Amino acid sequence: MTQPKNGFVTGSMRTSVFSFTRLMWHVYNELGQPEKESLSEAGHVMFMHKLMNDMKEVLNYYHTSGGYIKFSEKVLEQITEFRAYSVQPEQLFDMQFERGRTTEKYEDLNKIYSMWSEQIAEYNIEDLNMIQNFIDDINRVDNIRT
After folding, report:
1. b/e for 77-116, b at 16 or more Cβ within 10 A?
2. Does residue 32 carry a pLDDT above 60?
């Protein structure tokens, strides 16, 4: 702001309007970006496809579905939704259904989700849903002004 003239303040304020994702990247540019390997969405789908093919022997319901790349994409979308709502693999394990296809599907989703979580942690790959990581990072950093 500049000095008042005739009782009026002139000048401008530097303001910006961001979506949550743009705000996240703006803050990361200020604080330093996470030290994780980034994959495109297609890279995540290929990662999921390989993971499911490697898990064929332990899957009951989805043991033949891993060969289809589109199905791997759908499973990844489901896991991304789980992550968006903070559903952990253990919570899937705790769900109870009458014995049948639904039980087998959730058991397999639990196995896939658990293995996927372990693998992205092991290979230090960033999650598709970066918002939760961003929230965790903000809570850890001391020098953010509120």
Report:
1. eebeebbeeeeebeebeeeeeeeeeeeeebbbbbbbbebb
2. yes
User: Is residue 115 within 8 Å of residue 51, measured between CB atoms?
Assistant: yes
Please tell me the least confidently modeled range out of 6-15, 64-73, 118-127: 6-15
Nearest to 61, CA basis, from 17, 109, 26: 109
Does residue 55 contact residue 111 with C-beta atoms inside 8 Å?
Answer: yes
Specify the residue for token string 């849903």.
129
Cα(105)–Cα(134) distance, rounded to whole angstroms? Answer: 31
Angle (CA) 105-108-111 rounded to 5° is 150
Distance CA 23, CA 38 (A): 18
Q: Can you say whether the dihedral through the CA atoms of 20, 25, 31, 33 is positive or negative?
A: positive
pTM of the model: 0.70
* Tens digit of each residue's pLDDT (9 = 90 or more) over 118-132: 998 888 887 777 777
d(CA 2, CA 75): 56
- Cβ atoms of 41 and 128 closer than 8 Å: yes
